[in-house]
Structure formats: structure tokens, C-alpha cells
Amino acid sequence: YLLFLFARKSVIQLDLANTKKALIVPAFETLRYRLSFPKSKAELLSMLDMGTLFTFRYHVWTKGHAPTNFAKWRTATTPYRVEWEADFEPYVVVRRDCPEYDRRFVGFGWNKVAHIMELDAQEYEFTVLPNAYMIHMPHAPSFDITKFRSNKQYRICLKTLKEEFQQDMSRHYGFAALKYLTAENNS
User: Fold this and answer.
1) CB-CB contact of 128 with 24 (8 Å)
2) CA-CA distance, 83 to 186, in Å (whole number)?
3) Cross-strand pairs, 80
4) Given 55, 56, 62, 115, which residue has the most CB atoms within 10 angstroms?
5) What processes does the entry annotate via GO biological process terms (predicted)?
6) Residues 33-79: pLDDT tens digits?
7) What is the longest distance spanned by two Cα atoms in the chain?
8) Which of 52, 54, 65, 53 shows the shortest CA–CA distance to 92?
9) Chain mean position to CA 161
10) pLDDT digits (tens, 9 = 90+) for 3-24
11) Domain ranges of the chain
């Protein structure tokens, strides 16, 4: 509920209705199945320092949320802008008329990455909210991630879809989309 109130206030203050902004909600996670949700940023930071919370996927996929710049977020009091990087997949609040998720990426893999890439290609500004946060709770692995991990054909199909998506980005956005191809080849 607190996130909703803060996000709503940010949507108004940052003029989300009339600008191309993607408001990033920093993501954290816990390994505990029961957790008292922090009622303030200060409480969250304390839990982070004690090891009750961690930055989201810090131990398996740091690239996905690294551009959020958690070190800066710790002391930020005003929204700050970050740049797109390869494999960036933050949780965002966007206008209703933003590009939709690419329907090729259902199940596990690349749905948020492709969406953020599309937002970047359309020149959305990525703005981190300094007092908002979400916490991912542990749960059993999904059917799709289990398939991804255990089935080579699933991974081959996902790779093919990624390449197809990147080609479509190049056709649609031209020269500006080259950075996505270069970033992918370097990651």
C-alpha cells in the first residue's frame, strides 16, 4: 500500500502522463518465507545491512538490476536517471500506452529485458524512485524456469527468439538499435 501511494505521488510529480518515463522500483529479495515488510526505507536499509534482504538476484543475475545503482539509491532523496545496459530488467511503472511486452517471450526468459530494450529504443527515460521498493519472496521454481534449466531445446528456442527480436529492432529502429546487438555480443 505504501508503494502504491508513493508511486502515485511520483507519477504526478514526474509528469508521467505527459512524458516518456519509466519509473524504476528498486527490487530486493529475501530468502525467508516469512518477513515483516519494512515500513520505511530506513527499515529496509537496516534489513539489508543485517543480511535479511539482498538486492534482487545479486547472487545469480546481477546484470538484471545493476543499472539501478543500489549504492546511489541508499542515500538518494530525489529521483535519479539511469542509462540502459545489456540485460537490464527492472520493475517499472509506465504509462498505459507504452509498448507492450513482446509476445514471443512467454514463460521464462527475456520478457522484461526485451521490454526495457524497446522502451529504451523509444527514448524512454529510466528514473529510479528513491523511496519506493519491492521485495521478491521465495517460491518454488516455475515450470518454465525448470524447463529452461533442464531442456537444451528450450534454450535454443529462446536464443533464436532473441536473435529474431534483435533483427526486428534493427529493422524498426535502424542505426540506433546497433547498441543492442553490440551489447548482446559482449555479454
Assistant:
1) yes
2) 17
3) 128
4) 56
5) protein O-linked glycosylation via mannose
6) 788 889 999 999 999 999 999 999 888 788 999 999 999 999 999 99
7) 48
8) 65
9) 20
10) 554 566 776 677 777 789 999 9
11) 1-139
